[in-house]
Amino acid sequence: MSEPSDRLKKDLTRHFKERVIEAVLFLAAFVSVFTTTAIVYILVSESWVFFQHVPLTDFLFDTQWTPLFDDAHYGIMVLLSGTITSSAVAVLVAIPLGTLIAIYLSEFAPFSVREVAKPFLELLGGIPTIIYGYFALLFLTPLLQKIYPDLPGFNLLSAGIVMGIMIIPYVASLSEDAMRAVPMALREGSYATGATRLQTALRVVVPSAISGIASAYILGISRAVGETMILAVAGGMQPNLTFNPAQPGATITSFIVQVALGDLPHGSIGYQTIFAAGLMLMLLTLVFNLIGFYMRKKYREAY
Amino acid sequence: MNSITNEAPLKAEARNLSFYYGNFQALKNINMPIYEKKVTSLIGPSGCGKSTYLRCFNRMHDLYPGNRYEGAIDFHPDHTDLLSKKVDPIEVRMRISMVFQKPNPFPKSIYENVAYGLRVRGESARSVIDDKVEAALRGAALWGEVKDRLKELGANLSGGQQQRLCIARALATDPELMLFDEPTSALDPIATASIEELISELKEKVTILIVTHNMQQAARISDYTAYMYIGEMVEFGVTDQIFIKPKRKETEDYITGRFG
User: Fold this and answer.
1) Does A191 touch chain B (CB under 8 A)?
2) What is the pTM assigned to this prediction?
3) Which CATH fold topology does B10-255 show?
């Protein structure tokens, strides 16, 4: 066979353009993979240096966190307890309220109410966290002190409640999206058996949307665990091994802020602790993401 | 409207029924009897209002804003107008159940799908629910296939089984009238045959009103047939009469395939 005719020959310009576009798209996708890998690499390698000086058992089981003192202790439990306590308070506020709001907006609210309420709700998520922090410190804490006078000025309770308010929009908005995606045919099937609106919402719509709702919860919890500013402002930044929200406490994130703002020499063990703490935080959110992934698979939409 | 003598008592009767989606009049002054423990089918071309008419009986239109009924559906033995503002649509649906075009099992187990209507009615006694679920599944000719897998998700069943599951769900609450909205249009011929057979058995116990786009189906399973066209009831009569000797020219044209 002879050479292909001019009309059937490979168009080199087109070929070249296609390859360039492919390369650009690959680079764009690669940026996110590269960033994640780089973050993990830095966290692990810096933590490695830290764990050369501090045994892992001390890190996990010591009950004191005093890396900046002469008598240094590195018990991450202390910071973890602050993170868990404040996140638990936030979740206890955000999940019930967020779910109720989502059920109302999706199943009960007339069109006009939903059109007004949803943007306002989403606006709540756009407020800078520093403002939430001072809202907790200067408004909510004094308010709570009227009810419970022994409450210290810095405490995990008011930080946690405000953090809960902050994540309500995430929980409510994503849950509502999941519920609205439930086909009308399922609702009609429920109404046709004589079910009320509430029965339809709770027994058919919520179970049908459970995987989306679970993702919303997980995202909300991840936000709470990673939240920094509110806790740095209103939580007290005092390492305190307690699960009592009515006490001040430091969380992993607020400790990192404290050290990063301070004047610790780069490379000292004190400075190195923030990487170990950061690694801990990342593992924690990773666990939540895995739970979310598992729940999505297990309760995938069955309609 | 028709001069057939029949011994069957009335279950319901539409009187001057009109229905509006907003400003659009979808049903025009319909008068039609529904006889007790008979199968009545509604036929007509797409968009003629047969589903709209069907959904008046269990007040499904109340779920959406802007819908309006005029006229009445007299429901026996109460002699109550189903469309009256004083009638609670939930109470109506407690006595009139419905099977939809596409099988719509809830994301629950087979057992819970059938038990749904009972639970909604506040029934919680395990033994009562067990009995009624079994009876409904038997009634829907599904018991033999699912009795060992009641805990499995309803969505795991085949399309025809899902539709029979939905029939069992509609049956479990002992309805007086069952509405079928093109129940076989999403099913293959074998599943369709089993649903048709089922409907013929169900009329021993319950009155059936069925919308179908399939004239052969109407001829096979129904005792009475109504032909509808653009929101109007063109002709109502005994099925054989409608298919063999329709009185109206329009009905004949539709049935013989000259139109529609």
Assistant:
1) yes
2) 0.83
3) Rossmann fold (3.40.50)
